[in-house]
Write a structure and sequence with these properties.
Layout lengths: L1 H15 L6 H29 L3 H27 L6 H33 L7
Helix pairs in contact: 3-4
């Protein structure tokens, strides 16, 4: 619903400001501006995460983003080909599957790191 409200607001600004951008031009401008805003937020965040050795967080963000796009692509493909219905619940269900499996991976990874630390002992070079 909020996407429709933003869309209506952009069209109102376009019409009342007498800009008269067509649909393609509006998509060009809005996606360009939103994309650049994301770059200005995400680049410093990823740089901070990389500098503080949080590469797994970057991996998760990237993977979750790709999985979201893939989930929507599957639903659009099913709708277009007539092989299924396009349902948001399918998208959220698929993403929940990724989140649960990633959580399981994190638990296993955490146990592995605990075992390695217990066997190797504390690393004095990190203090």
């Amino acid at each position: 619903m909020w996407v429709a409200q933003i869309h209506d607001k952009i069209l109102t600004i376009n019409d009342t400001g007498e800009f008269y951008f067509n649909d393609k031009q509006l998509h060009f401008l809005v996606m360009g501006i939103v994309g650049m805003l994301l770059v200005f937020v995400i680049h410093p965040l990823f740089k901070l995460l990389a500098n503080t050795n949080h590469i797994m967080v970057i991996t998760w963000i990237y993977t979750f983003t790709v999985m979201t796009v893939v989930a929507f692509a599957i639903e659009i493909g099913q709708w277009y080909s007539g092989t299924g219905l396009m349902e948001l619940e399918d998208v959220t269900s698929g993403l929940k599957g990724f989140l649960v499996m990633f959580a399981i991976f994190l638990v296993i990874r955490g146990i592995y790191h605990l075992v390695v630390r217990a066997v190797d002992g504390p690393d004095e070079s990190k203090h």
